[in-house]
Amino acid sequence: MKLKVRNPGLEDRIPSHSDLERMEKEEAAGDRPKWDNKAQYLLTCVGFCVGLGNVWRFPYLCQSHGGGAFMIPFLILLVLEGIPLLHLEFAIGQRLRKGSVGVWRSINPYLTGVGVASLCVSGLVGLYYNTIMAWIMWYLFNSFQNPLPWSQCPLNANGTGLVEECARSSTVDYFWYRETLNTSTAIDESGGLQWWMVLSLIAAWSLLYVCCIRGIETSGKAVYVTSTLPYLVLTIFLIRGLTLKGSTDGIKYLFTPDGVEGTGLAFIVFTEAIINMPVSPLWAVLFFIMLFCLGLSTMFGNIEGLVVPLQDLNILPRTWPKEVVCGLTCLVSFALGLIFAQGSGTYWLALFDNFAGSIPLLVIGFCEMFAVVYIYGIDRFNKDIQFMIGHKPNLFWQITWRVISPLIMIVILVFYFVTQVTKSLTYLVWDQEAESFPTLASRPYPSWIYFIIFLLAGVPSLAIPLFALFKFFKNKCCKKEDNNDYTVDSISAQIKINGNARF
């Protein structure tokens, strides 16, 4: 396919291959932070791509959408959409040597909204993702006890029996919903801030800040642990699980569509399995250290996905020290994340998870692929990859980038939008007054929640056309288009000023 959208001034906005070679030599002679070796870079990529969602979100989606049968369309889409899009993002970022805003603005100023949308999604996802890290730290702290605090019900106030809520449910349910979350019975009942969750959230953001201010000097070495330990621990759990009585029943259960709610898988199902193991505190510590490593390595990339675009948009000045930039970003994120430390926090987190990382990601992914193939130009992109790795992408990449992947994203986006519009939106609550207790009760969302959903899913998606319209009317009013900020010389200058590792 030779279709290509007219894109004047592109040559002036991107570095040539000779410019790239020159900048590479300048950086090699300078003091810009670098990866010690290829292994650090690969482990960082693995850590960012494989995170908490693989442990608590993916199994939930698998269980609630057909069990083992879910793996068939998942693997197909992984090959035909997920991997091609990942490869495309890595390649175009490396070619243009900029962050998520700078890359698309360099391809065409009208595409600045793609980077802004990515910034919004990174911020929203990071808010609730680090809240899960806070939950993990809380459980890890409580794992250094024998017996584990979620292995038995507490006594009631007068000491004559067990707490009724725990006796009617289970020890792991009670510890999760009451001792950890102190959850309210509705999303519009805040329940106030839970001080232990606030402290855990402070610890999570503080640790992330300490790791990020050192840049790849620290994170590059940390990934040796954070990106490899989870696989070691999971292998240990797999071997241990297969040796237990009833392991075959567990494997059958894995492939049947009857599962628990997202976060409940990690904090209820796994914790119940742990208390049935010998030396349960040891297994608890290992499990939550594993989750912690998965989450931390992902947040390394997530915080960079916030800081770099904010600087590209001049919201945070490039002249500010990295300690200030990262500190301000973490502080604002912590303040916004306090909504998840309320009694209704788990309901808010589920809302963010369902909408902030769904429709916007599909829209962004489609726009990225269309921009590279039909605006930047697939022939130019092929030559760039040949320049970087020595050979052009094969036929598989050509077909997926040009046709298959964009079509798949359009179909999924339309199908998802139609199903969401036609169904009544509900959420699950922990309410001991409900008839179904201890099963979570289904409740309709209050009417005002649809405005929140629009902010989570609609605003990032609409940022793309809105920024394009803004640029169009600005050009019409000013009668000229200012591309001075996107020239080759400015790229080299920005690299020297910023001094940070990019894509």
Model description:
Its main location: membrane. The chain is globular and about 80 Å long. The longest helix is centred in the middle third of the chain and has 33 residues, at 280-312. It has a two-stranded antiparallel ribbon. The chain has one domain. Helix 5 packs across helix 19 (395-422). It contains 21 helices and two strands. It is an all-alpha fold. Helices cover 69% and strands 2% of the residues. Residues 481-486 and 495-503 have low confidence and may be disordered. The protein has helices at 10-13, 17-29, 38-49, 53-64, 71-96, 100-107, 112-142, 164-168, 171-180, 195-213, 216-226, 229-242, 247-254, 264-275, 280-312, 322-337, 345-355, 359-389, 395-422, 449-478, 488-498; strands spanning 426-429, 441-444.
Present the secondary structure layout.
Elements (H helix, E strand, L loop, with lengths): L9 H4 L3 H13 L8 H12 L3 H12 L6 H26 L3 H8 L4 H31 L21 H5 L2 H10 L14 H19 L2 H11 L2 H14 L4 H8 L9 H12 L4 H33 L9 H16 L7 H11 L3 H31 L5 H28 L3 E4 L11 E4 L4 H30 L9 H11 L5
Antiparallel strand pairs: 1-2
Helix pairs in contact: 3-11, 3-15, 5-18, 5-19, 6-7, 7-10, 7-15, 7-16, 7-18, 7-20, 9-14, 10-16, 11-15, 12-15, 18-19, 18-20
Characterize the main sheet. 2 strands, antiparallel
Q: Helical residue percent?
A: 55-70%
User: Structural class, from secondary structure content?
Assistant: mainly alpha
Q: Write down the overall mean pLDDT.
A: 83
Continuous helix count = 21
Based on Cα principal axes, name the global outline: globular
What portion of the residues fall into strands of 2 or more residues? under 5%
Instruction: State the total count of DSSP E strands.
Output: 2
**C-alpha-based Rg, rounded:** 24 Å
State the strand order across the main sheet: 1-2
Distance between the termini: 29 Å
Low-confidence stretches: 481-486, 495-503
Q: How many domains, as an integer?
A: 1
Series of H and E elements? HHHHHHHHHHHHHHHHHHHEEHH
